[in-house]
Amino acid sequence: MRIAIFLAILFAASVSAIASGTGIVSPDHPQTFAYGEMIWHQLYLEREGGELAARITFSNLPYVSDDEPRRDESFDFRFPGIKFDATRRTFFVNGRGGQTIPVARSRGGSLFSWIDLAPGAKIYLHKDSGRVTAILTATDRPRTGSQWIETDDNFSLQNILVALFGQPGPGLP
Fold it and tell me: Bigger pLDDT: 166 or 152?
């Protein structure tokens, strides 16, 4: 797990050489299926602490059989230190040098609204034998690739490429 956190911080630091960047590690580390997968995710504003949070559902779907029925588990990950600007409907974090970096935006009306990651934000989910760590990284410049990236504790080429570039290499699943 330390290596994945290191890679995410290294990635955020390398991006910050050209742009301002930051990373926030969620203090929540639930235990889920070691070889399951993320099947659903949603950002929301936590009512109690007023923090940006992510609800993520993991499933044993890849390993469902007659002997092993499908099970889904949802967990919440808080990201402290992110502030909400109601007039701009945007969530911000303070980067190095004091500048504000957009992390997410609230969309829709007052009755039906949702929160999307900003173009420069990504959430990395690293599973270490099923123990999940969520890391939100953000820059003040748009980034390409998936914004929700899941890796586990094996050192496959795909996991290393995902940790570094946010998407698998060409020809990899």
Answer: 152
